[in-house]
Design a protein that fits this description.
single chain; 325 residues; mainly alpha; Tetracycline Repressor, domain 2; 17 helices
Length: 325
Amino acid sequence: MPLRGAAGVLRRVMTWAAGRREESSIPDLSDMRPDDWVEHWLPRSWGPYARLCRLDRPVGTWLTLLPCLAAVVQAAAGWPSEFRLVIFSLGALLMRGVGCTINDIWDRNFDSKVERTRFRPLTSGQITLAGAVLFLLAQLAVCALLLPAVNAYTRWMAVALVPIVIIYPLCKRFTYWPQIVLGVGFNWGMLMAWSDTRGEIPLAAIVMWLGAVLWQVGYDSIYAYVDMRDDRMLGLRSTAMRFASDGKRWIGGFYAATIVLWLFAGAMLGMGWGYYTVLAAIAAHFVWQLRIFSIERPDFAFMLFHANIWVGVLLVAATLAGTLL
């Protein structure tokens, strides 16, 4: 009943905001990407909201979810319960959507000046600012419905994540290292998996989490090179601007540190030989990324960013192999 009620709230919010948009005579740009599954499978008035929370671009959800699932496996010392898998999967999906919505609210004036982002729903006028804020509150309300499914420790961990998600989009205004804040928030579910499964967060879990944070700094820096020219024009900052022409060396350093931290954490957790075998495959994948990466080829940057989904898949495989074999 609570989930059905929350779904009703979301429907009412989107319908109300869609009506407000039509009344304001803002042009409808929802058909800008006719090959998008959102266009074919969701009601037309829902499309802008689905795109606001990036349901049409699931790569970010996978990059949030997969490290979390790896932590769930390690914390359970084997195959976790289906209930916990469902709860953490929903949490990753919802919180990624919350983060994207907050990001677009903060950056709406910047996005309008960048070719790649100027057709985003809030920037292009498909959604009003009031509609976006109401949709954000509705998403947070649905997230709150998951809290009774986890223990008290994990509920406080979830609450602590919210300010991190809110602050991240602002970081690019005053630091060259917003990717660190993004990595902390994106991978927070790894710590929550331990707090909910074991009632504690051991040092080995923190080491695994730090490895995931550095991994994210590496691959999101690759992505940041796509926007470096626009960021410079708008006065924004990123690791790509900090690394400049030394990007391959910096990113290689973050990837190497990731492998070292995951090796140490595996030893601390008593992972079996299968863990280290798959970790070697992850290291080889990192080497391949660095060989392909070029700051002169932004199309490669997009491809390599998406390729990190396979790192997440391999990390889950490594934890399964390390606990079950």
